[in-house]
Write a structure and sequence with these properties.
By secondary structure, this protein is of the alpha+beta class. Helix content is 43%, strand content 15%. It has a four-stranded mixed sheet, sandwiched between helices. The chain is globular, with a radius of gyration of 13 Å.
Length: 110
């Protein structure tokens, strides 16, 4: 994924968190991909995800044949949490609705 798309998404995460719909945390990302994959628009992964998370993520995406953008953020889990306005670390999140953000699902496929 192009660096400018990642930067644009990262800059819009506060807006997405406030006005859209987001599931926070590696476990909720896995749950969402397994149970409501049609609603997941994108997955954002911090620079320091939990052990085995990426393997599990790839396993689910490949097994289900999902075409969901997975964005590898330049932010750590604490920096991502700060962007989201969360009081705890956020190692991964999935976007279900972009809300009022100046970026859309289509932008992630450029």
């Amino acid at each position: 994924m192009r660096a400018e798309i990642v930067r644009k998404l990262e800059s819009n995460i506060p807006i997405i968190a406030r006005s859209g719909e987001v599931m926070y945390g590696a476990n909720y990302v896995i749950w969402s991909l397994e149970n409501i994959p049609d609603k997941v628009k994108a997955v954002v992964v911090s620079r320091n995800p939990p052990p085995n998370f990426l393997e599990r993520l790839n396993e689910i995406v490949n097994k289900k044949g999902l075409k969901i953008p997975i964005i590898f953020s330049s932010k750590t889990n604490m920096e991502l949490a700060d962007l989201c306005g969360r009081p705890h670390s956020v190692s991964a999140l999935c976007i279900l609705d972009f809300g009022n953000a100046a970026i859309s699902e289509e932008d992630l496929y450029e």
